[in-house]
């Protein structure tokens, strides 16, 4: 396939009707590495909010089972989208996720913010570092995916457009970003997980580059120092050099999708494996559509 042939295919799709297929093409074919980086930054943004990081720090899930916690979060999103948001597979994943969250008193605005990071995070990363920016159809499809996940999980007042998600995220961070020691503890645990994906000699460099690619408000909220200008410039050039190389390659073939490869489940997983062990004994939370 030509490098831009899949983009032409996506532009012929309807972002509302075909959002699941567009998400699959974006995350598994066009931008698999960049999409994962955008999701990773989305995780980190959650930790800039003390109300969220204090809860995560109290559970100690990242300290004790950090890689599993990371994998489970990615896999829940994959399970809800894999067969479409109207599928039984999606509903089962949403019920299980609601069962986990049901133990805690989480405000609706926090659910909305976390959801917004998964819509806005990949878009901003890809537009900044991808081999091409997202087109309008892809952007609208990401927003539709976020809206459908909100409906599935019973999250109220989700925006209908990408611009709405972006405005929600920015306004929430303006109000809620603040430093707390819990922010740094959870972020450090996550950085240790990410650094462990690379050979030991490269880990200090990976950590430095990761910090250099984060924006100043997030660094302040996490309690990390601002990186020198030359470090930020070098990190940006390195990531963009990779994208330039990707642009020169042919499109990923249909038979080679880039699906999640969770390190916690080398022999595969079942839905009940996802989440902390105690969640398996909690009653299932009915979905909003099942309550009516």
Overall description:
Helix 3 packs antiparallel against helix 7. This protein has helices at 5-11, 19-30, 32-46, 50-59, 61-82, 88-101, 108-129, 136-153, 162-176, 181-195, 203-212, 216-222, 229-247, 288-291. The radius of gyration is 19 Å and the shape is globular. 65% of the residues lie in helices and 0% in strands.
Residue share in helix:
55-70%
Largest sheet: none
Structural class: mainly alpha
Number of alpha- plus pi-helical segments: 14
Instruction: Count every beta strand, where a strand is a DSSP E run of 2 or more residues.
Output: 0
| Shape by Cα distribution | globular
Task: Provide the β-strand percentage band.
Answer: under 5%
Distance between the termini: 47 Å
Give the helices and strands, then pairings.
Layout lengths: L4 H7 L7 H12 L1 H15 L3 H10 L1 H22 L5 H14 L6 H22 L6 H18 L8 H15 L4 H15 L7 H10 L3 H7 L6 H19 L40 H4 L1
Helix pairs in contact: 2-3, 2-8, 3-7, 4-10, 5-6, 5-10, 7-8, 7-9, 11-13
Task: For the structure shown, list the relevant keywords.
globular; single chain; 65% helix; 292 residues
Describe the structure concisely for a colleague:
With 292 residues, this protein is mainly alpha-helical. The chain has one domain. Helices cover 65% and strands 0% of the residues.
